[in-house]
User: What shape does this take?
Amino acid sequence: MLKRLVASGSLMVAMIAAPAVAQTWTPGSEIVGQSVQVTTNGVVNTVYFDQGGYARIVSPGGRTVNASWAVNDGQLCLNSGGGAECWPYTQAFQAGQVVTLTSSCNATSTWSANSVNPPPRVENMGERG
Assistant: This one.
């Protein structure tokens, strides 16, 4: 039956070319403006990764420590004035996904992003685009 439909021209196949979409990750782009729950030794702090490299670390009791954050050489670093602590950072955080990381101070903690920014969409216009 398919042959008959094709032969009679009744079967129309349309191919619509959609632009190729590539997603690139810039370290830190998914968490800027977002917060992450960081649990170390049973204590859960919320770290806010604000624009411009500013950070706020909020304790369970509501105490806020101002800090800065940066991404360098595959490390996510927080500096609260008393020194920097860095964690391996080789892939984007996903909202609600728990990641266990060991810092440069040899402290193990779990990180869970409360929310993340979507990756930027880069459209590939193809050869002629």
